[in-house]
Amino acid sequence: MSTTLLLSIAAISVILLLLLVIKAKVHPFVALLISSLFVAISTDIPAKQIMEVIMSGMGGLLGHIAIIIVLGAMLGAVIEASGGADSLAARFTHSLGIKRSVAALTLVAFILGLPVFFEVGFIIVVPLIYGFAKVARVSPLKYGLPMAGVMLLVHVSVPTHPGPAAAAGLLKADIGWVMMLGIAISVPAAIFGYYVARLMNRKNFHLSVEVLEQLQLADKEGKKKKNPPSQKPPGALLISSLIVIPVVLIMLGTLLTPWLPETGALHGFVALISTPAIALLIALLLAAWLLGFRRGWGREKLDTIINSAIPGAAGVLLVAGAGGAFGKVLVESGVGKALALLLENIHLPLIPAAFVLSLALRASQGSATVAIVTTCGLLTSAVAELHGIQLVLVALSACFGALGLSHVNDAGFWVVTRYLGLSVADGLRTWTVLTTVMGLAGFAIVWLCWTII
């Protein structure tokens, strides 16, 4: 099948998906499956393999995020029901004010994103986003949009994560320099993204009914207290500790396991407790004991609170999984390879070529990591004469390209928009635009560095 036809099918599939969701009001899960089938049939994927590809894409993604999302939702429900999120938000907002608290939490998100995968980190901070939004009586977008943006920025640019680490390996760039320059360039890009998000938040976006119900406007909440008058809500320090525990455990795994003997028991123990799912499970068990049983909750109350988190998590999982299926079909159809070949034939200069190729691959199949790895794999022969910082800058150019154009075929798009209550159209206006301008900011700095050296 020709490159032009493949790219046309990919474009039509995205338009079809947007029409189904925005105009026809079809549930995103169903719309994603319909679009996946359209691509599979149009690109001549054998009929017997179509459902295998769809299930592989959905299963592969859910295998990675399902436990994390469910445990994260349960932890958030326990913290929320105890009054802890409101307590922490009230303390923080009183000390810093609303404007400073947004900037402070965005900085926290940047630091949190260094050792923690994007989806995991975002789910961990969701209770904070809602707690602060309720106390400040503002939309959760005011906190959630810049926080999610900087966490994804770090995820694609710092080689504590698989994409940039693979880029360094494929291009034979020094991973230490990739890390240092990645962080250095991400700081101004994050500041730029913070102000872009602030500009976006001047507009009042319509939020989903589920999110509005979760927010429970502060005036209503004053009439319906979750704790008896004689019982104070848990302290801000305790809530902060419960949120930080999974982050610290994950960081321990990142920092310690390379230095421990692989055959030793300590290596296995650290590797186990530092996996995101186990780290969240430990935090959930501690929260159940410290916020629940020690404060007089019975088993039935705790079960009710934990069970209340499952329906919301299930909705996020369904849509994210279908997004993974759509991305997998696009990859299997050959759209990504066709796009890479087209851009390679244009003969752009190396730094913009790495950025544009990665950006286009990200837009076509959804995964930032796949976009980075594919781009760097295609550029291995082109960088044969380069050395030192030049290789580092080519790798980072590909990384920042993979930050942009997060849209309907990206599972992260659905996680962020669902948790923040955005419609698909508003998600494209905010999250897609924010990730793209941050990617462009990072690329501009990389290109500037290239011209100097």
UniProtKB/TrEMBL annotation:
One of its GO terms (cellular component) is plasma membrane. Keywords: Membrane, Transmembrane, Transmembrane helix. It comes from the Bacteria. One of its GO terms (molecular function) is gluconate transmembrane transporter activity. The chain crosses the membrane at residues 5-22, 28-47, 59-82, 102-131, 175-197, 235-256, 268-293, 305-326, 346-379, 391-408, 428-450. InterPro entries: Glcn_transporter. Pfam families: GntP_permease (PF02447). NCBIfam families: gntP (TIGR00791), PRK09821.1 (NF007332). This is GntP family transporter. The lineage of its organism: Bacteria, Pseudomonadati, Pseudomonadota, Gammaproteobacteria, Enterobacterales.
